[in-house]
């Protein structure tokens, strides 16, 4: 695969946790095992990292964000190992790579109104020359995530719904215009209707604003909805990868087949069952879209 310098390139990443807290005998646990992949900036895309709980997905997210130096291997961006950047270079990296987490409370201070989230970012990264320009940018970012400024800016975080808080987090990301979004289980606390809204915004961010997302989920349905590429992770290893349509229709690894077989058929008359067929007719859409989702392809 050819890579450009503005890609994020993970090469042979291994993460071993040591100490009393780890579960294996001998006090060592390999959470990530020799993982390599590239997040391409050009063209922008969505890459879903899928696997069951404990497979190592969040560890990879932390490693990419520069929060967890891997035991072995490298993450490079613009040709440089991100764990060898100066403080100034790392700040620049973190402006271009933005996290989106499951629980957006981390970006809010409960004692301040929501608008402070945006003013803090504008000041820290010097995104506007004056107050008027800053306000225009904030409003543009809120509109990009389908929020009205008057509905959120003067409220306190607890006065917003979970979906509004998540969208404020996405508006913050929009304000920063990063090249990459690392979204770790961003929708698992949202209800189905709000999930679709959130996923559509991620798709918009890719298509309209050229951002690449690493979308971490344990849910194949939502990975299928956002499209693009998929990396399937099991016990710290990437066991299958490719275009999502190919992988889900023709899974080759037993683990992917097992994940697929545990998806319920969205048929109101059908009950959960151990084994379900992935497609009813060869070439038809896999039965993985949630019932109320419109697949945008
Ligand atoms: N700091 C740590 N010390 C010891 N073990 C850890 C540490 N961080 C993660 N682990 C272990 O590494 C494994 C992978 O964790 P990770 O959070 O990456 O999985 P995950 O796929 O994101 O799971 P989930 O979907 O539940 O968030 C787990 O078994 C976890 O207990």
Automatic annotation (TrEMBL):
Q: Which branch of life, at top level?
A: Bacteria
Cite the entry's keywords alphabetically.
Answer: ATP-binding, Nucleotide-binding, Transport
Which residue range or ranges hold the ABC transporter domain? 17-260
Q: What is this protein called?
A: ABC transporter ATP-binding protein
PROSITE patterns reported for this sequence: ABC_TRANSPORTER_2
Species name:
Dictyobacter kobayashii
Q: Give GO BP annotations, semicolon-separated.
A: peptide transport
Molecular function via GO: ATP binding; ATP hydrolysis activity
